[in-house]
Amino acid sequence: MKKILLICVPFVILAVAASLYFFNKDQNKQTSAVTDDEKYNDEQEDVTGPGTDTVSYGLYEEDGQILDSLDIGKKNGKGYKKVLSFSHYFNDKRKYGLVILSDFKTIPFKTDNGGYKKSYTFKMDKDSVKKIKLEFEPPSNFSELSFIIIPEPDYKQESTNLDIASGLQENFTLRYIRKSRDEKEDLKPQKTTDELTGEQVFLTSKQTGNKILFKSKSNQKTYLQIFNSHDTNLDYALVALSGTEQSSVNGKPVSFTSVKENDTNIYEIDMPKVEDKENYQIVLFPTPYKTSTMYEGLNNTSESTFRTVITP
Fold this sequence. Notes:
Blueprint lengths: L1 E5 L3 H14 L30 E7 L19 E10 L4 E9 L2 E2 L2 E3 L8 E5 L3 E9 L7 E8 L10 H8 L2 E6 L13 E3 L7 E4 L10 E3 L3 E7 L6 E9 L2 E2 L8 E5 L4 E7 L7 E9 L16 E2 L3 E4 L1
Parallel strand pairs: 13-21
Antiparallel strand pairs: 1-2, 2-3, 3-8, 4-5, 4-7, 4-9, 6-8, 9-10, 11-18, 12-14, 14-18, 15-16, 15-17, 15-19, 19-20, 19-21
Helix pairs in contact: 1-2
């Protein structure tokens, strides 16, 4: 499976460009290009490459075969060995974090033959491409694997600059579902509304409204809005990230909920207790564990709230 993020909407162009400029004004004059015959090549002529303001990424077998479906591919003994290709075609440097989730809980993995860790951080220069060797061993009975690439995971936004917030909002996700299963809904909404924020998932300080929650206190009561824009009822899995560490949603590492077609559910969320400033971002996975073709285009995606900085 490979994905290309083409920044084509004017507002998004501004958001991403502004955030990248903010993080690092220095430009690296070295350009790293991918040749046509290189393994793990997820480039597309006239779509990606220097000057295109795109991010592209894909997961491959060691022999260069791309994993372009929900199938995670072959095992190597008890675990898996794959290669993640990531292309960053912007004029600025940027840092990214990587986590792997098995059934929506982080698992340790090796990168480039290093030791096992639950996250990996890497830097991308201007117009650069990186190939990361991965080795991981999920539980033998797992149903779904998710790979999340997080832009600038350590950056804590102190301002209310919407351009920066938008540039940090989207995480880049690859999902692989081995087998279908049903999960019992354990996160119940307080109410349902037809009020829209323009976001699939949105965190705010009041039960209704569209004011972004840039900052919060430990244990503060907040409200999560999930909008199902589709003409069918959908299930969701929810996790929370603090940088590259998994946090909790109301004390649980993963929660499940359902939203009826074209409805918005509102949930009461208690922010976690922190000892120091921490990022907090809820990531929403539509149709968890669903392999049916009716969910194509949903079961390989994720949506994220704007980041919130929690203070003690």
